[in-house]
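S., here's the first fold you wanted:
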Amino acid sequence: MWLILSILSAVFAALTSILAKIGIENVNSNLATAIRTLVVVGMSWFIVFLTNAQTGISSISNKSWLFLILSGLATGLSWLCYYAAIKSGQVAKVVAIDKLSVLMSFIMAFIFLGEEFTKKSIIGAILIGMGSLLMVI
């Protein structure tokens, strides 16, 4: 199931870039990000209530709250930077640089989570980094 969801995530992320580039024309990038965020918040809470997941709020630990809030701040900063970048840049180049997050996540997962590097994952990470940079040049 994770593979199907991952593929769908990639499809929707690609659509996000194209739809955002069209929608951001003549709109301040910060305002566009705020509008997008409101839609995401509304949709997320709709799904929470639809699945009755709101009952789990009281069982969230302080540690989880802290890291979910920090993750939300990182997401917000990422989106603000992304929208500002696509406002003035070519989507294909912005997305290529943005996808260096895969490489950065790989390195941070090793440093902070203790995840293992394998020969295959190192080669893949190098190829992703090189591919992203080649798309920008």
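And the second, which I think is the more interesting of the pair:
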Amino acid sequence: MITGNLKQLDATMLPPALWKLLTQDELSLNALQAKTEGTYRIINDDVFYIISTPTTDCEGNLKSEFHDHYLDIQIVLKGQEMISTSTTISYPHQYQETKPDLIFLDNPPITTRLLLEAGDFAIFYPGEVHRPTCQVNDPQKIKKAVFKISKTWLATQ
């Protein structure tokens, strides 16, 4: 897991391909905030992002998830979100996918909680368990971008 803020990318030790991606003008915080909800493809199915406006909820009402093929870059664009995390899954292939590359877990122990505000991001590599969209104090509608980066694509960069 890597955390940071889009306005302070110099302080974050990102792999070069992710640095190049997140420093594009069209993917700046202001540009992303102006986007409407939807899926935006950058490189076919290898690199894309989803803009959504979910309402945060109590941590206990949400499920933890992890991915096997894609990295998640979760960026808060407006509002506040808590993302709870658990230990990394050692053998991800033993779990059943709910949707392509989405595996839910039943109540793994939460080990860390990240408070994210506008511009903050958290990068979750395959096997890293996370429970996004947790409320900070009360439920609130937020705006966020979730980048999906194929681990195969990233390995070839």
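Why I say that: The helical segments are 16-22, 29-34, 151-155. The two ends are 19 Å apart (CA to CA).

Talk tomorrow,
H.
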